[in-house]
Structures are given as C-alpha cells and as structure tokens.
Amino acid sequence: MKKANRERLIDQAARLLTSASAVVCLTGAGVSAESGVPTFRDAQTGLWSQFEAEELASPQGFERDPGLVWRWYMWRLTVVEAATPNPGHAALARLASLCEEFVLVTQNVDNLHEQAGSADILHLHGSLLHFRCQVCAQPHRLTDAERRRQLPPTCARCGEFVRPDVVWFGEGLPWQAVEAAFVAASSCDLMLVVGASGLVYPAAQLPLIAKQAGATILDINLQPGPLSSIVDLFLQGKSGEILPALAQSVAWLIQG
Ligand code: OAD
C-alpha cells in the first residue's frame, strides 16, 4: 500500500472507530506473527505447512501418540513464553481505552494481549499456558520437570494424561467465551478483524453475524481472504505497523 493511500485509509478507519459506540475486535495468529509466534497457514512459516494438524492437534492424535503431542506443545509453549507483545498488541490495548465499548475476541492461544494490557479477553481456542486432565478436566499446574518429560504428566485426581487446555480439531469451543463473542458480534456497530484467515469456524462466523446485524467491518491483514466480500475497509499490511497508526489517529480525533 502506498504511503499516502495508507494514511488516507487509516484516517477513514479512525473516523469509523470514533463514531462507533460498540466495537468488537477479532484477532488471529497474524497479530502475534511479529512477536515471533508462528501462524498456522502462512506458506513456509505456518505451523500447518510444516506439521500434521491431525497428528498434533486432535484427540485422536493424542490418543495415538501422547508423547509426540506433548513434546510439540512444550516446544510451542517455549516459543510463546519467549515472545513479547508487539506494537499491534499494545495498540489494541490503547484502542480499547479510547473506545466507548470494546470487546476483544481472540483465536490465539498465547497471552500476548494480556501482557500488552488488554483485559477481559474472550479466548475462543483456549490457552497454551494452561493444562488439564484429558478425562476429568481437573486443572493441572505444570512443573519444570514435566516440561522436559517424553510423556505427558498424569492427573493427580484420576491418573489419566494431562493435556494443554486448547481446542483441538473436532472439539467444542469453551461455550461461555463463544456465547459472549456471538452476543457482542450481533450487537456491535463495528468489527475490526486483525490477522485472521477467516477459514476457521465458528470464529469466522463472527464478522458475518456482525455484518448481517448492520456493523461496519474493518480488516487488517497482509492479504485479502475469504472475508473480503463483506469487508467495508481493508487495510493491507502488518498489524504491528497499522494498528499503532490507527490508535494514534483515533486519539487525535478524540482530542479534537
Ligand atoms: P492463520 O495462520 O490461518 O492465518 C493468519 C492470518 O494472518 C493470515 O490471513 C495472514 O495473511 C495474516 N497475517 C500474517 N502475518 C500478519 C501480520 N504481520 N499482520 C497482519 N496479518 C498477518 O491463523 P488464524 O486465522 O488465527 O485453531 O487461524 C485460526 C485457527 O486455525 C487457529 O486458532 C488454530 C488454527 O488451526 C486451533 O488451534 C483450534
């Protein structure tokens, strides 16, 4: 995007944001990419272009080879723990403080939004930093020794394997977060989608619901995607560059 065009679009987006009374922001892996957390579907660097989702992120995969799944999640945990929020995360926390009502919904399993100061985040796909028993769901506090083990630890209550508290393929989502996200999407007047491919449901349904309810849809992404047909304003580029400029423009508009 050319600089002048980008500035014009950011200004337009900022005006839409300042005139909205209820904003919902949906983030995907793209928002954490500049922090060094791999996305899922980007060519070469995306996790699903290097690893088998079915083997590593499904209940059947865990059943077949719990050790393999455990070690892969311990690697992902290390990557996430080494990452720090980027200017995009910080700008979303700033935007929340500038908007009348701002609900942050994420598909990400990292905690970079929290680290950047966002609060009350609706995590649709769980968290890489939390663990629970795969059978009785008892929460489990991970020890350093357990991280290095070849097999998952076992549940203190029932003795079954412990797993990461993330949503795997074929599993239901945490219903409270999903319900709150759908309510927010159907009653917002602007939805900001950031770094989400729009390929994974039910998260990808949220912008469609918002659009049907009359909301304006803003999209920040490196490239157009399946949501493009319903997007009112597309800001093409890195979220870590666009979001800080957007938050700054909103702040200037508010200050008059
Ligand atoms: P994807 O990897 O499918 O898509 C990432 C999106 O971010 C793509 O549209 C990229 O173009 C865009 N992107 C990459 N870098 C960016 C940047 N710096 N700035 C802006 N955009 C950027 O990730 P998600 O859509 O989040 O589910 O994937 C959804 C779900 O699929 C994940 O939560 C995960 C996965 O399977 C589960 O694990 C349940």
Sum up the structure in keywords.
elongated, alpha/beta, 9 strands, Rossmann fold, 256 residues, SIR2/SIRT2 'Small Domain', single chain, six-stranded parallel beta sheet, binds 2'-O-acetyl adenosine-5-diphosphoribose, three-stranded antiparallel beta sheet, 2 domains
What does this structure look like?
With 256 residues, this protein is α/β, with parallel strands linked by helices. The chain has two domains: 162 residues, 3-Layer(aba) Sandwich (Rossmann fold); 84 residues, SIR2/SIRT2 'Small Domain'. Helix content is 43%, strand content 16%. It contains twelve helices and nine strands. The protein has a six-stranded parallel sheet with strand order 3-2-1-7-8-9, sandwiched between helices. The chain has a three-stranded antiparallel sheet with strand order 5-4-6. Helix 11 links the parallel strand 7 and strand 8. Helix 1 crosses helix 12, helix 7 packs parallel to helix 12 and helix 10 runs parallel beside helix 11. The longest helix is centred in the N-terminal third of the chain and has 17 residues. The protein is elongated, with a radius of gyration of 19 Å. 2'-O-acetyl adenosine-5-diphosphoribose binds next to helix 2, strand 8 and helix 12.
